[in-house]
Amino acid sequence: MKKQNPIKLMVVDDHPAFRMGLTALVESQADMTVVAESEDAYKLVQTFAQIEPDIVLMDLRMPGVSGVEATIALRKEFPDCKVIVITTFDCDEDIYRACQSGAKSYLLKDMAKEEVLETIRAVYAGQHRLPSIVAGHLAERLRREDLSKRELEVLQGLVRGRSNKEIATSLFVTEATVKSHLKTMYVKLGVQDRTEAAIMAIRQGIVHLE
Questions:
Q1: Residue 43: strand, helix, or coil
Q2: What domains, with CATH codes, occur in the chain?
Q3: Whole-number Å distance between alpha carbons of 80 and 153
């Protein structure tokens, strides 16, 4: 009987210790192997084309190019590629954006190694797999209406402590327009005021402070 080739994985994460640990976990399995590692996603498409891994294990927030941006770029060139996001962030919006970008799964870095390994095998077999806690966050996010691009820009200014006048100036619109966007945004987010909107934006990962 012909021996099946191992699942080829590429690990993309800017934390050396985690990248090393994840690689060690994969290499401990007879049916898996790590064929490439990277601390960022700058040359991901080029490396993917050269290495042709079966699955990319992708960190979400990295300097420069985020995991979501990298996944979108990768799937644009290779529509059938399989990406599993592995991150410390369990915010509703992060999960939603990752799934929207085409990631096949979303794992948290503190999940049991068995969960990680089972997910790799499931995704390799062509399945979409989300742990129950992640699926719960995604379901919660899907209940909320998307913010428009302009509403998101206003929210980013609000989170950074800018006044309506400052936000209006930066976006080249009137204060009345900013106030209108705020009212619509409050309804979509289910909040009452600026403070609640800012807290929710940070807590849900809609706006990142870094």
A1: coil
A2: 7-142 (3.40.50.2300), 149-203 (1.10.10.10)
A3: 32
37 - beta bridge partners?
11
Spell out the residues 6+ positions from residue 53 whose beta carbon is closer than 8 angstroms to its own.
8, 9, 10, 35, 36
Amino acid type, 185: M
Q: How many residues does the chain have?
A: 210
Each residue of 97-150: pLDDT tens digit?
Answer: 999 999 999 999 889 999 999 999 999 999 998 888 888 888 888 888 889 999
Shortest CA distance to 104 belongs to which of 137, 146, 56, 139? 56
- The burial of 29, by beta-carbon neighbours within 10 Å (0-12 exposed, 13-18 middle, 19 or more buried), is given as middle
Q: 0.85 exceeded by the pTM?
A: no
Distance between CA atoms of 127 and 175, rounded to whole angstroms? 48
Cα gap 173→168, rounded to integer Å = 5
**Tokens 């609640």, located at residue:** 196
SS3 42: coil
The owner of tokens 């994840």 is: 22
Are 9 and 57 in contact by the 8 Å Cβ rule? The answer is: yes
Q: Give rounded-to-5 percent helix, strand, coil for the chain.
A: 50, 15, 35
Pairing mode of beta strands 32-38, 7-12: parallel
